[in-house]
Amino acid sequence: MAHTASEHAHDEIHLPAPTFWPLVLGVGFFGIVAGLLLWMVRSTRANAGYSAEVAWGVLGLGSLVLAVGVGGWVISGIQERRKSHAVPEGGVELAKFSMWCFLGTETVIFGGLIANAILQWILARQDGHTANELLHHFQSLMIVSGNTFILLASSLFVVLALAAIQRGDRTKMALWLTAVAVAGAVFIGIQAFEYNGLFAEGFTLDATPFSQGFFFLTGFHGLHVAAGVLWAGILAIYAFGFKGFSKSEYMGVEVFGLYWHFVDVVWIFIFTLVYLI
Amino acid sequence: MEHTPAIDITHAAEAPHAHPKIDYVRIFAWLSGFTLLELLISFVPVEEIKIPLLVGFAVLKATLVVLYYMHLRYDSRWYAVILIVGIFFAVVVGILLPRMQRGILPLP
Q: pLDDT tens digits, residue range B23-41?
């Protein structure tokens, strides 16, 4: 039986066009890792042969390249989807499928990091120490609880943004996305403040195995929040400045929402398992 | 002859569609309420009571977010399968990693 073009289109898996943006993103990641390594070496060796500013510079440059890479990739992906409306209907939703696959792998990574933090907490208790005593101070708990509410609220903003564009209200969607970016930035700011307080108390990256696990876990999560802030900002700019997204084309917002809610879910577990228990 | 893909990803998730009307603010209110409860429970001195309650609330909150904010309740079951596989491997890593660190299992 002969098939029409649209019938075939439904059965095909649409592959995105080749793009160089992942390479840019990779260079950015390399810069970040190189900067962190330089900083670690500099902080442990006085005769490292370079100043701390060099490490921070490489880290900053890497972050900038990463930001450009993420932004370019997101916008090129959205533009491609807009151009290729001949793409099968399902092709658009493959972006969602891909995001779920990504989140599946992220679940494994965060599972390992959370398990490590819990293990170090248990081992420290067996040695007679309360590893997360500092995190249990009333003031610390209030700070981190406030941060938790901010992240939960930001998840609400994301679904409100999605609901707005599903109604065709692009301006409201862009405003909610801006709110998400601001909430995420505030979360990172408060986390930096929290870290500062912990450092002052001697709870540093290399203080104990638990502190290592704690900073790797919360830092890695913070990195995800930072990427989300960037992403939300790009989507808001795209909506405000380029009239991006419409009542029938909002997959970019939905996929971002999946990512952001996942980051929220991870924090729900970090908040309970690392701070409260 | 009809042609059906082995795994019908495209059919599983058709064109963008609005999800059923969900009261997102009410979900947020539940999440906030549970968080406040967790905060209060964290001051309970008996760990045998505190830990199961806290873990239970965390799972409940995460489930609410995944089902309603991530729309897993209304979306394709394939997404749920991916998530379950991810959680399975996360549990495997969570069980194996501590054993490797403590030398019960050899490090790769």
A: 899 999 999 999 999 999 9
Residue range(s) defining the domain that contains residue B89: 76-108
Contacts of residue A33, Cβ cutoff 8 Å, sequence gap at least 6: A62
- Closest to B61 (Cα-Cα) out of B39, B25, B34: B34
Same domain for B25 and B64, yes or no, is: yes
- Contact: B93, A108; criterion CB under 8 Å: yes
B83 and B37 within one domain? no
Q: Least CB-CB distance to B54: which of A112, A265, A272? A: A272
Q: Is the ipTM of this complex over 0.90?
A: no
- Contact between B83 and A156 using a beta-carbon 8 Å cutoff: no
Chain A window 179-238: which residues touch B at a Cβ cutoff of 8 Å?
A: none
Same structural domain, B69 and B81: no
Specify whether the CB–CB gap between A70 and A227 falls below 8 A: yes
Closest chain A C-alpha to B32 CA, distance in angstroms? 7
Each residue's pLDDT tens digit, B43-58: 888 888 999 999 999 9
Q: Kindly state whether residues B63 and B83 are assigned to the same domain.
A: no
Name the token pair of A203. 């709870």
Q: Is B63 on the interface with A (CB under 8 A)?
A: no
What's the whole-number mean pLDDT along residues B60-73? 94
A40-49: pLDDT as tens digits = 787 777 777 8
- B67 and B29 part of one domain: yes
Stated as kind and residue range, the H or E segment containing A113 is helix A89-126
